[in-house]
Amino acid sequence: MGWHGWGSTRLRRTRTVVIATLVLAALSACSATVPEAATKAEGRTAAPARSAVAEPPPVDPNWPRWGLTHTQTSANNGDERLLEGASQTLSHVPMLQNQHIMGFGVGNPELYPGEFAFKDLDSRMRLMDRSGGLPVITLCCAPDWMKGGPAGQTSWQRDHFEAAPEPSHFDDFAKLAATIAQRYNNVQYFMVWNELKGFWPDHSKPPDIEGYTTLYNKVYEAVKAVRPDAKIGGPYLGMDSVSSADASELKGKWGAVDQVVLDAFDYWNKHKKGADFIVVDGASPTEDHAVLPDPFGATAKFGAVTRWLRKKTGNLPIWWSEWYIMPEDGQTRWPEDMRLAVQAVSMIELATSGAATALYWNPETKQGDCPGCMWNPQDGSALPTGDLISNFVKWFPAGVELRQATTSDSRIRLLAQQEKLLMVNTTGSRLTATVNGKSVTLQPYEIRWTSA
Description:
alpha/beta, TIM Barrel, Immunoglobulin-like, 2 domains, 8-stranded parallel β-barrel, 3-stranded antiparallel sheet
């Protein structure tokens, strides 16, 4: 039996649960204003400062906004205890779940031309169904024979795995994408490729955005031909930033997005056949691992890029397929409470700027400590990162309207809707401040969810 027959009844029940959960949050909302950081003067109550939120972009009704990408090791790669525990953790507040078609925990889907192997991908899709997820598929990466390698073999050496299909095989990759869209016809959303892999091997030179755009257009047309209902997005471009504030028009205290990236996006945006949503990823640190002006202030990049993209694309929904907050220099270590607080502030930036979707690149191990993981690798129970994302899914889906909140101390970041208020202490010190007219004391880096 094809995938479209397996589990379809359960999926319909899952969607009903998701919609019912998110409708409750959306119906509780009120007027849309950005939560205000208040005055810089510590210890004084701020007068409510108002800053209008732009009209939200079009999204599906009650879209959860938040979710995760399954990586090399996930809950289906352990025993039944882990699978059941993680499924229960994820189904508590159903969210978006994304999987690549090759790599990232899934084997080669087409070892020989026209001969498909979907066992691994089926397993990940069953995990999504069992845990109540709204499934998303990333159409990357490509079988070896499409990249100049021999049929019947798979090399996981990074340079080869991340290579782009040769232009003569763009049509073959598009056919594979269409086959997958037909097989998993319960999946509505598809992202095309990943970070221009293979199209930008040398970052000292501009990417082959023309080649990527050609591949994207072929995939777009092939999938739409067999699944007109499918939603397709790209270019899954890394919005890399540099420390120089003069590097491009898209800049702030956090640095500036590389002009080469902006030029690539403009080319794709002009020459694409169509797009139902826009996909980018990125990190708040710069390419030289700087966090400007500090780890919390650097997260303003996510809001700035989202607003720029919404303006550039006529307000298409903006997806962050991945977002990162820590320098990847192999040296930086933050206390876990600080890391969680920075992550919470980054999600506040995404919410207030109107990002439609943000997928957390979930790390996972088979045993031992798992910093930043959403669930315990032994029993699947929720870890603090999982709780944080679940709370954002529950209280701040894409359709929820925000309300104003004030604080006498700008070091406390706020996000509010009618029923729920989120407070984040962005310092390593105990803070007492007036929030919405009430005295509040927060411990160092405390994240507190309370009634509004």
